Amino acid sequence: MTLATQSSRLRSRVEAALAAVLDRDAVPSPPAPELDPAAWYEGLTGRSLDPWQRAVLTSSGQRLLLVCGRQSGKTEVVAARAAHGALRRGRRVGILSPTYRQSLIVYRRVRRLLVLAGAGMARDTAGLLELPHGGAVLAFPGDDPDRAVRGETLQDLIVDEAGIVRDDVITAAAPTLATVADHTEVHLGTPKGQRGTFWKEWSAGEGWERHTARSDQCPRISAQYLERMRVRLGPLYRQEFLCEFLAAPGGVLDPERLDELFGGAAGASWPGAGEVAEGAQAW
Length: 283
Ligand SMILES: Nc1ncnc2c1ncn2[C@@H]1O[C@H](COP(=O)(O)OP(=O)(O)OP(=O)(O)O)[C@@H](O)[C@H]1O
Ligand SMILES: [Mg+2]
Description:
Layout: H1 3-25, H2 37-45, H3 51-58, E1 63-68, H4 74-89, E2 92-97, H5 100-116, E3 123-125, E4 128-130, E5 136-141, E6 156-159, H6 167-173, E7 184-189, H7 196-204, E8 209-213, H8 223-233, H9 236-240, H10 255-262, E9 281-282
Parallel strand pairs: 1-7, 1-8, 2-5, 2-6, 6-7, 8-9
Antiparallel strand pairs: 3-4, 4-5
The structure holds adenosine-5'-triphosphate and magnesium ion.
């Protein structure tokens, strides 16, 4: 055997050994992405998405605003986005709500979908779930800016009940997406007065894809129930179920008082109450 043949065989053996090591340590690639996350969710749960939920789940927009009435299914649809993103596309998804307990409610919804989908979990502790191929779901406390999202790098950020998440926490959360070119951000909630970041984004923010759905458009909420709530809540009914940004919800809390409570800039004045922002997709 010539010296050249010997060295060529040796090189092949080294390359084969190296390939085996690399393969053993390689992070498995995520399963092929399901083209239609709506079909994925409906097949998994046996539920039918409402038209606006379908639009949100299948949207390729980078920045989405959802202003919806109580119990209309807004948390469910972002949980579905998070689960599909983490499982099928290996995305690192952060969930931020006014409190850690509330973030965990969304987180558990995501986890339930992943369990239903038979996802294996590399790590599964309260508030942090990692999938073997790199997808992850993280829950953050919105009432503790220091422990909140600083220092994280996320691909998708979901801010639930954005109307009552402190403005400084929402501001601190945005840079977690800074270095991810194809990041997405969804802010969702029921209105909480004409104040704060959520209201500013809805009424005057640029670059947001807007979706809105009132509770009386939800097929799971009866007209009788809504009528009872209308009588019980008075003017607040319009805020909670018809998703109107009221100037002074209930006549008790004016925007300045709400700003004091939630830490926003006091005294800002914004366009009229109850208007659906231009370009919003209303259903
Ligand atoms: N398309 C659907 N089909 C069947 N059930 C649904 C659907 N969407 C949501 N739900 C169920 O409706 C209930 C309310 O949904 P969800 O919690 O997402 O609403 P929400 O708008 O976030 O409510 P809240 O205003 O209290 O935060 C939940 O039990 C959820 O599982
Ligand atoms: Mg909710």
